[in-house]
From TrEMBL:
GO MF entry, a single one: metal ion binding
Pfam families, alphabetized: Lactamase_B (PF00753)
Cofactor(s) demanded: Zn(2+)
UniProt name for this protein: Glyoxylase-like metal-dependent hydrolase (Beta-lactamase superfamily II)
InterPro entries, per database record: MBL_Glyoxalase_II, Metallo-B-lactamas, RibonucZ/Hydroxyglut_hydro
Domain Metallo-beta-lactamase: start-end pairs: 13-195
UniProt keyword Membrane present: no
Keyword terms, alphabetized: Hydrolase, Metal-binding, Zinc
């Protein structure tokens, strides 16, 4: 059975997710761990559960989601997977990291590109990949059908959506992608966003003020 562990890291209060199953293979999504104590919190859990990290995935490459990339790659000797359109976004982080107080930011390079036509397989689990751009140009979300878990990054939040005023963002693109790619998931799908609490597709279809039934178009 697929299990999920969440961590909240850095001043942006970013949600980092660890997925693993009975095989003990694991995937880390969006490591925001920058400080040493944050890195220890992540690694202590992995050691406690005797997990083997197989992949490092960025749903997208804004600074708050990639601060721990270099640490995870080095610590667990795993490849970094991103969408190709996120490569310039990742590369740009080193140019502005110090402006946000991350003077010691260590740049990371992707090892492989992934897209919506792929499946992410580890242990006894397989995740469907969906392309949901708008918050960033190459944003991906990951869905596990058996448990209804969706790693959503900064696409859909409880009662909100990802901001679209950053470079590469587009409001209409995000709204359309959520309606076509996220809202086509089962209503009981558990949405684990990049910030804030979990929500579900049924609730957001009904109540989300940006894309739900009551949204103003």
């Amino acid at each position: 059975m697929l299990q999920l562990k969440s961590f909240t890291f850095n001043p942006f209060m970013e949600n980092t997710y660890l997925l693993y199953d009975e095989s003990k293979e694991a995937v880390i999504f969006d490591p925001g761990c920058f400080e040493k104590y944050e890195q220890r919190e992540l690694s202590d859990f992995i050691e406690k559960e005797d997990l083997k990290v197989k992949y490092l995935i960025n749903t997208h490459c804004h600074i708050d989601h990639v601060l721990g990339n270099a640490y995870v790659k080095r610590k667990y000797e795993v490849p970094l997977y991103i969408h190709e359109r996120e490569h310039p976004v990742l590369k740009s982080v080193s140019a502005y990291a110090s402006n946000y107080g991350f003077a010691g930011y260590e740049e990371s390079q992707p090892d492989y590109y992934i897209n919506e036509n792929d499946q992410l397989k580890f242990g006894n689990s397989s995740l469907e990949i969906r392309f949901v751009p708008g918050h960033s140009p190459g944003h991906l979300v990951f869905f596990h059908e058996e448990t209804g878990i969706c790693i959503a990054g900064d696409t859909l939040f409880q009662g909100s959506i990802g901001r679209t005023d950053l470079p590469g963002g587009d409001h209409d693109t995000l709204l359309n992608a959520i309606r076509t790619q996220m809202f086509s998931l089962p209503e009981n799908t558990k949405v684990y966003p990049g910030h804030g609490p979990m929500t579900n597709i049924g609730f957001e279809k009904e109540h989300n003020p940006f894309v739900g039934k009551r949204a103003r178009f």
